[in-house]
Structure formats: C-alpha cells, structure tokens
Amino acid sequence: MASTVQLAVSMRTFSFCLLSALLGLPSGVFGQKLSLGIVAGGSLTDAFPTTTVPVGPEVGIAGFHNYSQAKDYIVGPAIEFKLSGHWSIEADGLYRKLHFTTSALLFDGTLNSVSPSPVITWEFPVLAKYRFHFLHLEEFAEAGPSFRTAGNLNGTSPSHQGATAGLGFQLHAGKIGIAPELRYTRWAADNWQAGYQSNPNQLELLVAVSDTSATNLHPLIGVTAGTALTNTFPATNMYSLTISPLRSLIAGPTFEIALPKHFAVEADVLSRPSRLEESYTYNAASGPVTATYSRSTGTWEGPILVKYRLPGRILQPFVEGGPAFLFSGNFWSHGVAAGAGVEKRLGLFRIAPLVRFSRWAAEYPVCSFCGTNQNQVEVLLSFSM
Fold it and tell me: Can you give the pTM of this predicted structure?
C-alpha cells in the first residue's frame, strides 16, 4: 500500500515538474531533428540459466534439466530525438523471443521429453545518448531505463523493468547511418512465484540503420490526466465478503510526433492505481462485526497510438488507435486502445478532451484481488505544447 501511494505521488509530481519545465522552455527546443530507423541483432547471453533440479529415483528420472537452446534474435523500430550536436534521446520497441527449453534428465545423462517453450517479449529502452570523437569515429555512449512486457509465459514471469547502458559508433553511407553497438541490460528480479527465473544480466550486439537526413519536426510534449468511467475490478458479493471497486486519478506524461497528411503518433505513460475496498463480516461474541479494508496496487498504462486529425476551424476533431501495454506489481497485460476527441489551440498550447476505450487481454498471473475488467473506458484531458 505504501509503495503504491509513493508511486502515484511520484507520478503526479513528475507530471507537474514536466509541465512546469515545458512552460519555461524556449520554442526552439521543439524544432530539433528526429530520425527513424530499425534496430536488429542478437543476444550474447542466454535468456535463462542452465539448471538441473534433481528428483528422487521413485519418479523414474534423475531430474529436470532447463536451459536456453539458442541465443535470441532482436528486431524492432527506433526513434531518436536530437537535442544538440552531442546529446539525443532514443526510444526503441524491440521484439525478442526468449529461447527456453525444459526436459527430463535420465539416469544415463540423456535428455527425454525435450519441450522448447519460447517466451515472447517486447523491450522498450528509453536512452539518453552522448556522441563524442575519441577514436576519430562518431562514437556514442547511452544509458537509461528499460521496460518489458511478456506473453506465452510457459511458467516464467520475466520482470518488467531494468536499466540499460551501451557503447557504439556510427558510420555514414550517404543519408543512411549504420551504428553497431554493444548494449548491456540489468533486469529486476522476476516474480518469485514463477517456476523458472530468467537471467537478469543480458548482453546484446545490435546494429541500428537510420535516416540521418531527418527533417525538422515539431514534437508535442505534455500531460494527460483524467479518470475511468468503468471500474478496474468487478463488484463482488459472496458469502460474507463484499468487494467494491474504487475510482482513481489517471495521470502521466504524453509525447506526440506529427506526421504528414494530418497523421501523428502519440505515446503516453499513465499512472492508474487499481483500488478496491473489501468488507468482511464475521460473528463475534457481541454479534456480527464488519471489517473494511482498502487495497491498492500501482498500475501503468502505455498506449502507443496513431492519431488522425479531421478538418475543423474552432475545434479540430481527432480519432486514434493502436496497441497498449499494462504493467503492475500483481498483473500485466497487453491490448488495444481507441479514442476520439476534439482539440483546441490556445497560442502555443493545445487542450484536448477525449474518451478512450481499451480492451485488455487476460492478465497473468491472476490479480491477487480478483479478475480485472477487460473493457475499460476513460475520460481524459490532454494539455501539450
């Protein structure tokens, strides 16, 4: 409970600080170069450690042998926002299938019932990058947080956050930049309830190919806040237990990149604490007594949406849609989100009320409170510049 409150407070504090910083930035900051590219490569380390769990002879085998049968390939889009000649910010969305195999170890040392059980993950590193010319190349160093979502878990539970650092250099072939790099990520510990633990230390060899002739674009940075029209948890009344969902504030930073022909791409990082109240009635010597407890868990929503603006003079309508990701200490999921709203310009600022619908896949593991509602509707207000 305390960690959830701290999470919500820190998220709202960050949003307030971001908004304050935006109001004080010169307009030239928002006209820097943006480049798009593709990152591909592979891991130099195994996704899972090699382990052997011995069992008694009455089972008929010597034990269970678990290992990664191959190194993982990695591929995905990259976007880099150049702040100056030396500094930039890069964000990637990397697909990585974690190779994992379980098998039975026979008494003669051979493996039986070999079962490849891949785990599908997406990694989202957000890195501050610094370029220098120590060896007369365009070398760079980068570091920042990484986030991860996983599916097809097969008894695993890869953690959702970590820290990444990397070193590399960039070569130029006309307008194309080719940047090989070595990247290290330290992931937080997996869920202790998972049957198999992944390797927290990962080393990757990657090559990024990008367009270095990026045009000056004008990204929008702001804050989105609101509340849900639907409950995160369904109301439950069984036996002597009553579960009542509670509403909570949704808030977090938003980032948007304008594209040609009225299109744009928006990414949000929204804090949405999942709250409920439990009432339990039991019989005491003096009669029935009801005890009430409030429970909460910190939840993060990460929609990545394609937005289309329709023509409008005073108010500009828009529609949006795309994938969304859900992170929490007790459950995680992915889904799709779609929304509609109107936008009003006030000088350098944009104010946009909107309604957004999300359809979430079933979470795993099941929430410690109860199953969550997969259909969610939110009313939000976005403020950006």
Answer: 0.65
pLDDT digits (tens, 9 = 90+) for 267-326: 998 888 777 677 777 777 777 777 776 666 677 888 999 999 999 889 999 999 999 987
Q: HSE (CB half, 13 Å, CA atoms) of 143?
A: 4
The residue among 245, 231, 275, 224 whose CA lies nearest residue 5 is 275
Site of tokens 């678990």? 66
- DSSP per position, 243-280: EEEE--EEEEEEEEEE-STTEEEEEE-EE--EEEEEEE
Alpha carbons 47 and 69: distance in angstroms, whole number = 9
Burial of 375 (0-12, 13-18, 19+ CB in 10 A): exposed
φ, ψ of residue 15 in degrees (nearest 5): -60, -40
Cα–Cα distance, 327 to 11 (Å, whole number)? 14
Give all strands of the β-sheet with 236-238 in edge-to-edge order: 236-238, 241-246, 274-284, 287-297
Domain limits, the chain: 2-31+218-384, 34-211
CA distances for 114 relative to 52, 54, 105, 151, 197, angstroms: 14, 16, 9, 21, 19
Lowest-confidence range among 22-36, 260-274, 324-338? 22-36
With beta carbons less than 8 A apart as the criterion, state whether 195 and 156 touch: yes
Judging by DSSP bridges, how do beta strands 270-271 and 51-54 pair with one another? Answer: unpaired
- Write down the architecture of domain 34-211 according to CATH: Beta Barrel (2.40)
Fold (CATH) for 2-31+218-384 = Porin (2.40.160)
* Four-CA torsion 146, 147, 152, 154, nearest 10 degrees: 70
| Amino acid sitting at position 178 | I
